[in-house]
Amino acid sequence: MDRMEESLQNNNPTAKAFTLTSAAWFALATSFGMIAAGYLIAPDFMANIEFIHFGRARPMHVNAVLFGFVTPGLLAAAFYFIPRLLRTELYSHKLGVFNAIFWNITVLSGMIGISFGYTQGREYAELPWPVDIMVVISFTLVVINLLLTVRNRVEPILYVSIWYGMAAVILTACTYCIGNVIWKPDTGALVGIPDAILLWFYGHNIFGLLLTPLALAAAYYVLPIETRSPLYSHTLSLIGFWSLIVVYTHIGTHHLLQVPVPTWLKTISIVDSIAMVIPVMVVLINLWLTVKGKLGAIHASIPAKFIFTGTIFYFFVNIQGSMMALPVVQRITHFNNWVVGHAHIGVFGFAGVTALGALYFILPRITNKPLYSKFLADLQYWLVLIGITGFAIVLTIVGLIQGNAWYNGETLYRTLPEIQPYYVLRASLGAFIMIGAYLGLYNIIRTLYFNRGAST
Prior knowledge:
16 helices; mainly alpha
């Protein structure tokens, strides 16, 4: 290893800052989620505390997971592997650390704003207008730092992880502005059906054009290294990239099949939702053939174990999502807990688990010390796996109970006693995830700042 590569590996304050950001907000986000789960079991649970009642705790949980935990975790990995793949230093670590600090101020401002009742009241776009501007600034700083790093590169070939990483931050900086209607600070929304179309264009793309490409960028980087296998096909990797960009962009309207949206737009959203099988299976075939015969190496590696598990969740969330876009299926599955389960599989099961794997991959490399405790990391893996798998099963069952009851004319109050036990089970499974989050935070803090080099 030459001096430049050694410097890239051991001195990355930007990646460290985003790593700590992700771990801290993971713990807080799961805490918000447990509060919301408590209200579903007992509606009077902490009912007199205005700042954290369900209508505020739920969007706080969603935005803390999205912007506090998953995105910073994947960005931490990107700030590590993009300079290495380009064989150059990150353009500016001062800018990167400032970016991380400003990112935390942004997310904290959003949480406080929602807690005090300042919200635009739109799905995944609840943050008040001043925080929207801060989010755009945060992404712009990431784009500037990474683009200038690409410009200064020594390596002429751009590996697929760079394609995915750069597309994620550039496209999201644009789609966030459009979807949050930032040119209308008084309302942060349009009127009627046009607003619904615009919202779900953003609402789906914040996952498909942010979390998905960032997670795949990490998977394409980590899995070949941890299994010591060359990538199966660079051609397939680029086919997967471009098909994702082309197909995913138009599927958000499948959330609006029951409303008077133009039929041609509904048709495009359904067709492209089914066509999502193409980019997903191209990626999974490529990654799974890369690690073929290396399950032992995956089991022995904590980062690879997390990320390989993330690819399995990616498979299930795609099959489920394509099926849900069919009108005949959506009559049963829409507007109930089936969709909530689907969102948890995608955001946490795929992107979140991948982010955790990426963090555990870069931690020893940016600290030049072994992970503080492999046991705690492995325990976190199993807690998270049990929690999210249980979530998927429980919420799917609840969704089918609700959907079939409503489809057959049952009133709402008659379904509530039927699903109450499932909400209790859901909260119990959420406790597994929350405990895992706090164990991970402790492990990461000890690795970053109080690690004498001994790993258990």
